[in-house]
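Components:
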Amino acid sequence: MKNLKLHIIFFLLFSTIVYTSEKPKNIIIMIGDGMGINYVSTNVISDPNSPFRKFKFIGLSNTSSLDKLITDSGAGGTAIATGYRTRNGYISVDTLGNNLKSIFDYAEELNKSTGVVVTSSVTHATPATFIANVNDRKKETEIAKQFYDEPLEVVIGGGLKFFTPKSIGGAREDEIDLTKKLVTNGYSVFTDINSLMTNTVSNKFYALLDSAALNPTLERKYFLPELIQKAIEQLSKNKNGFVLMIEGSQIDWAGHDNNSAALLAETNEFSNAVNYVLEFAKNDGKTLVLVTADHETGGMSINGGTLSGENLDLRFTSKGHTAEMVGVFAYGPSAENFSGVYNNYFIGRNLIWLLKPSVVF
Ligand SMILES: [Zn+2]
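Structure:
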C-alpha cells in the first residue's frame, strides 16, 4: 500500500515535470513590418536554407485593429507589445487615452534588460509601441522623450534628430539635447557604425546611426545581424535575462512602393537576422524566439519565376496595407503556445503571461 502511494506521488511529480512547458529566460520578438506569408514565401522558395523552414511551431495571426479591418503599424505593434487592440495611429494607449503596459514594462519589473534593434527611426511606430504611450504616432520628439524616461539597456537604429535640438540640425523645438542627458545618466551614445562596432565599454547604450531611418539594405554597408550581435552581447550580461525587439522596418516601405527588388532585399536581410537569432537561441537554450509581422503590405502575389526562385514576378494589388493574415513562427521554450489561428493581441497576451501568469486582460 505504502509502495502504491509512493508510485502515485512519483507519477504525479513526473507528469507535472513533463507536461508543464518550460518558461523562457529571454524573449526575442522579431517583427518584419509588412511581411505577409507571401513575403516569407519568396524566402522559402529561393533559399533551401531559409530560416523559416526551421520552425516547428507556427501560427496565423489576424492583424485587424480595434476599429478597422486594416491596421497601421501603431495599432498592429500595440497588439503585439501590450496584448490589447487599439485605434490606428495610437501607440500603446487605449481609446480613452489610458496607457497600456507593454511586455517591456513587465520585463523591467522582473529586473530583466530590454532593448530594440530597428532599421527605421527608433521612435517609429513599431518600436515606439514597446516603449512609449502616445495617441499619435507622428509625435516622434515626444516618443524620444519617453525613451529617455525608460530604463532601456540597448537602443539601435536611426532617428538621431528626434533626440537633438533644432538649433544644431535636430527636430526638437524644446531645444533639449537628449543625447547629452543620456550620457549624464550613464549611457554611451554612438552616432556612427564604426564607434558602435569598436566599442568594448560595458555601458548600456544608444546607437542612433542616422538622422532619420537607416539607409535601405541595398545602400547600407552594415546589416541587422551585426547590430543584433552588439545588442545581445550587452543584454546577455543580465543574469535575470532580457526581452529584445528586432524590426525589419523597411520591408513595409518596399511593399508601399511596390518595389520588388527592395522587397526581396529587405526580406532577405531580415531572414539573415532570423538565422542569426535562431543560432543564438539554439546555443543558449533558454531563449524564446518569435518571428511575426504587424500586417501585410501591398497585397503582393508571386505570379511567376523559376522553380528555384529566380526572377520572381511579384504583383501588387495595393499601395497600402491589407488584412491578409500573417505568420507567427516560434522557437524555444514555450514555442508550442503560439500554434493555431488567433487575433494579433493574443501574441501580446501570451508573451506577457510567460513573464507574469497572473495578469488579467
Ligand atoms: Zn506601412
